[in-house]
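[step 3/7] fold_predict: job queued, chain A
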Amino acid sequence: MHARVVSHLLLTLQGVSASTSFSTSNLWNMDYSRFDSVIVFGVAEMMDDLHVKLQESMQPGSRMIVCRFPIPDVEPDQIIGEGIDSVWIYDVGAGKPTSLHGRTASAGEKSD
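[step 4/7] structure written:
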């Protein structure tokens, strides 16, 4: 069964499907300001830049949920699971530093 169908079924059973949406689109052209949470299955090489983009475009208190590859040099707010099944959760949004060093990187620039 397709992951999107399973996810919709689970959300319907939990009674929250009306407040949830799924989208498959170009990560770099997407407007994230209307989302509370974004789940990413990405590759290691893109995580720094994607974190900066989400940090700049999402509202304070939003979450970036990352599967497979954590964001380098950024401490997650929560880790669920172990090994290849790990999920890292980061609070993101305008004004939150993008690195452990408290410095906010600009788009395309690597965090310290």
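[step 5/7] annotate
The first helix runs from residue 3 to 14.
The beta strands are 37-41, 62-67, 78-80, 87-92.
exit 0
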